[in-house]
Each structure stands twice: as structure tokens, then as C-alpha cells.
Amino acid sequence: MAMLNMAKALNLALREALAENDKAIILGQDVGYDEGVFRITEGLLKQFGEERVVDFPVAESAIIGLAIGLCVTGYTPICEMQFSGFGYHGFHQIESHATRLRNRTRGRFTCPMVIRMPYGGGIRAIEHHSESRETIWAHLPGMKVVIPSGPRNARALLRASIHDPDPVMFYEPKASYRAFREEVPDEPETMEIGKAKVVREGSDVTIISYGASMRPVLEAAEELEEDHGVDAELIDLLSLVPLDRDTINASVRKTGRCVVVHEAPKHIGPAAEVVAGIVEDSLLYLEAPIERVTGYDLVLPFFNSELPFMPDVRKVVSATQKVLSF
Predict the structure, then answer these.
(1) Which residues are catalytic?
(2) Where in the chain is CATH 3.40.50.920?
(3) Fewest beta carbons within 10 Å, which of 84, 93, 142, 192?
(4) Per-residue confidence at 107, pLDDT binned at 50, 70, 90?
């Protein structure tokens, strides 16, 4: 196995997709000659040519609109929005056409496209380059929303998304692109979309997160165990749509306590849906109210105030102690 960071693992998945499927095509701003703003498409233009790795102007709506047409004609487009904050310019194409195509044609056509969007703070970028608005996309019927947390699951989930017959919003935590490395199998690997992973088993409390927020959650679990003797079970959601309620509820029924962590704003955020599912299915198993550790309900602030906005170890530990002391 190779030790790869997330950027290299995503590049590997794209390289495999282009090699395995001659109808796969990458579309986006600066994805070709500049190899992507985060270098995720590094080397792909040179290997596969400009008919397979296509540079576009600053026109997100055109990227998505053309990709929908390509789907109808048998292609598998993989679109890159340079930053998630630019994706709104393609919203009407996504909402009005991509997510509705299967239903509109009564299954005659599907829309097997992936929309890659780097999201989140932590890299000292400016407004529209740092937000976490995954709830917007999760609210669209017909759209899967996948969010990896590390190199191995990023590669496997991107492969699964490319193989999926319906549109997938692939939200990439850019703060994790080069933050750490892990072993990624040499042979192609694919994960099932919609299955959360229990990354750490425990008995005292369930902590649920995804994407870049998994790093402070993992560190918080270690601190809770070493300093307070708390045995926390950690769940990485990996996708918001479908949401793996079975794994969530099985864990909460075991521990009786829960904390949900994400970078997105709190109001109507993904944690709200997670909590609602727990209340519907496992309310009588709870020993304490559920705590949420989230971003604030405001635009992500500029550089000096960026990190205090985001979930961190201190906030996760504090919320967990509050749940345990109830």
C-alpha cells in the first residue's frame, strides 16, 4: 500500500476512472493545464489529453449544463467547482435538471455525474472560499451528498460516486487535502455510499461527525480517555444523503449519550437531521439531551477569527463532558 494524502488519493481515483471508462470526462476551471487550484487533477491532461480533461471559463452554470447533456448521450462527467462557494452559480442547472432527470423521463435517462466541491475553512482563504453549505445540497431530492474524511475513504468514495447512476455532490474537505497521510491500497477500492463507519468503539458516549471535523473529534476522544477515563464511540457519517440512521441509532442505543459535530452553521444544519432521527427512533434510550458542536450562524470570518469559528478539541471535550454530567 502507498502512503497518500487526500489530494493524491483523489487524483488516483480520477486517474483510475479515466483509464477504466473511455466515456469518463473531467470538466472544470483550470483542471487541465494548471492541474486544478489544489492540484487534484495533476498529470491527467498530459496522460489523457484535452478531450478528456477539459478546461472551462469561469462559468459554473455552463459546466453543469454541459455535463447534464453529456450524461444523456452516454458520458460520465466529473465536474470540479473550484470552491464550493462558487457552486451556487450552477444551482439552477443542478436543482432544475440534474436532480430531476430520472423522474422527469420516468427512468429513461439518468444523470451519472459527480460534482466535486472543495469546502470548509482552516486554510486562511477568503469569503466564498471557506464555507460549509452541505445542507443546501442535501435538501435536493435526487442528489446524493458524499463527504470523505481521509485519503483512503476519499479514493474509495469518489470511485463509488463516479460509478453511481445518479448525480453525486462530492464535498471535499480542503483543510484535509494535505493534512495527513494514510495507507491506500494499490488495487482499486470502492466503498458503498450511504454507510457510516464506526471508527472507534466505545461505551460511554457517541460522537458523530464527518469531513474535516473528524480530526478534532479523534483528538478529543483521545484526550477524553487519557484525562477523564471516557470511552467514546466515534462515527464518521461519510455521506449525508443517504444518511445511515441504522449505524447512528445502534450506537446511541448502546451508549445512551450523543454529541454531533460539524463545521456547517447550526441552524437547520446536518446535526439537526441526525438529532431528529435519533429522537424518532431511539428517544427512550437517551440518558441526556444531545449536544451539537457546530459553526456559528454567520459568514465564516476572515483570517484571525477563522479558527475560533470552527469546531475544535476544546469544544468537543466540553460538549461531551456536559452530556456525561447530565
Answers:
(1) 129
(2) 197-324
(3) 192
(4) very high
